[in-house]
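Title: Prediction job returns without error message
Component: structure pipeline
Severity: low
Priority: P3
Assignee: unassigned

Description:
Job completed but the reporter wants confirmation the result is attached to the right record. Sequence as submitted:
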Amino acid sequence: MDDPDIPPHRDAEDSDDADWGEQVFRSLPGLGIRHVATVPDAGLGRFLELCEAAPAIRLITLTTEEEGIALACGTWLGGELAAVAIQSSGVGNIVNMLGLPNVCRIPCLLLVSMRGEDEERNPWQVPVGRAVPDLLAALGVDVFRPEAASGVAPAFAEAAGRAQRTGRPAAVLVSQRIIGAKSFVDGD
């Protein structure tokens, strides 16, 4: 399912400027994803910038994360898989809404930038950041945790496939080790 508005995927070895956000973005057409819902986050920055610039992708900015779950469910009922891109602190906001895709057996794909991990400088991010993997698993979400930047796009594709096969939510958690800690300097 190639789209002329999204250049073909290139492996990181083929390009010095390829990164995990670009690789996930380039995987969207092959996964049939044309809708990405988000509460914007710097950790997802490159991915969201590319989505916003691509005519083939509809980037929907949400007011709250739980709207993304409803949007993903509605998109699936319309015949397409959507992605919800949020920060780990927003996972706490979707706890009740995750019942909808679980009970109705609707695939729901999450891309989560993690906070509260390595070198976190904001102590408010630590409790939820630590709880996210276990919380999602307890809520019936299949959790994927790539170890390196090169593993994010493959994990995203695997999560999309699993969500569609099982009719359950799946989440890819992109660690702070991959994203980098926020420095809170120069507008971060």
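Comment from assignee: result matches the submitted record. The chain has seven helices and six strands.
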